[in-house]
Design brief:
This is VOC family protein. Helices cover about 20% and strands about 40% of the residues. The protein has about 210 residues and is of the alpha/beta class. The chain is globular and about 45 Å long.
């Protein structure tokens, strides 16, 4: 782990996902979500199995958008982990992409305000932490401010970034995604923004190009 005090981060420019077939993965994300350069793929260079320790959320404005993105993801080949359903927090679903990444699509709205637009308001990367307090200190020491923090959940304030960052206890994150918490090998993700380092839970960051 790089603990150089001068390393600071303030935003995430992109996330890069490892995939056995990067061309097929790129087609999936284009067809399912219409994602551009903020989500990239590369050929997998290390083995991974089970839960990779993170989820990516797509935040949208209304339930119709959740359903539209869910439908396009399933049509493109995603596996359903949790169907579209209402909760105390709004409406959401969880799917797993063919490359293995887990995606949550959610809105805090409980009623539609118009036709579906499939517009993604924000992308949120949620990292599973073994010790949330220690990982929180690590990121605060590198310049991030805490926006919300309660229990085993931390949401960092990143006003200049469309990609948000949060921490959640690994086991709780797996439960929320609807999968077993066990996993081994590479996280199969690289976070692009700020500088190159590895956090306490093994998530690798790379400097923006």
């Amino acid at each position: 782990m790089n603990t150089t005090d001068t390393i600071t981060i303030s935003s995430i420019d992109a996330i890069t996902l490892d995939a056995p077939d990067p061309e097929a993965a790129a087609r999936f994300y284009a067809d399912a979500f219409g994602l551009g350069s903020e989500v990239r793929v590369r050929a997998a260079d290390a083995a991974t199995s089970g839960f990779r320790g993170y989820t990516v959320s797509l935040i949208v404005a209304q339930p119709a958008d959740v359903r539209a993105l869910f439908d396009s993801a399933v049509a493109a080949g995603a596996t359903v982990l949790k169907p579209v359903e209402k909760s105390l927090w709004g409406v959401g679903c969880v799917i797993q992409a063919p490359d293995g990444a887990i995606w949550k699509i959610a809105t805090s709205a409980k009623k539609d305000s118009g036709p579906a637009t499939r517009t993604i308001q924000q992308i949120v990367l949620l990292l599973g932490a073994d010790d949330v307090a220690a990982s929180k200190r690590f990121y605060v020491d590198r310049g991030l401010a805490v926006g919300k923090s309660f229990g085993s959940y931390v949401d960092f304030a990143m006003p200049g970034s469309r990609i948000g960052l949060g921490l959640y206890k690994r086991r709780a994150l797996a439960k929320d995604a609807g999968v077993a918490p066990e996993g081994s090998g590479s996280h199969a993700i690289r976070i692009v923004g700020g500088a190159s380092f590895t956090d306490p839970d093994g998530f690798a960051w790379a400097a923006s190009e």
